[in-house]
Amino acid sequence: MSDDNKLPLAREWHKAKEALEEAKAHELTLRKEVMAAFFDNPDVKGTQKADLSDKAQLVLSRSASIKVKKDVYENFAAELKQRGLVGDDKLVKLTPSVSATAFKYLSDADRIRFADMFEHVLSSPSLKVDVKSTDD
Fold first, then answer.
1. What are phi and psi of 90, to 5 degrees?
2. 62, 126 Cβ separation under 8 angstroms
3. What's the rounded mean pLDDT across residues 102-109?
4. In what order do the strands lie in the sheet with 126-131?
5. How confident is the model at residue 94 (pLDDT cuts 50, 70, 90)?
6. pTM (whole model) above 0.85
7. Can you tell me the mean pLDDT for 5-34?
8. Contact at 8 Å (CB) between 77 and 87?
9. Which residues contact 49 (CB under 8 A, 6 or more apart)?
10. Would you give the end-to-end CA distance of the chain in angstroms?
């Protein structure tokens, strides 16, 4: 590619990148408006459906994760390790993260005790239109 073509190519790419960012922001705004219009409680984990017509449904899917608040974790690290709830530190440091399975089986007392250490985070919602097939 000649040097004369490089600058226009970079400009075209930059314009496309800016347009993409604007489109993403606009789509997110519309997604939130559609969710609010069609679903009573869009901010919950799981899948919800709303009929658009007899042939199409709007499907909202949302997952959730539990994250460790590292600053609070430090307060509980020794106790958690002593109780066998965390692997031992070795040569390589482990980043605190939550096992969803282990969290599910945590006692109510421990959920209360360690509540400040966890942050429940909803994922960005997925929204799609499912068109029902017509098998004639």
1. -120, -155
2. yes
3. 91
4. 46-51, 56-62, 126-131
5. low
6. no
7. 94
8. no
9. 57, 58, 59, 60
10. 55
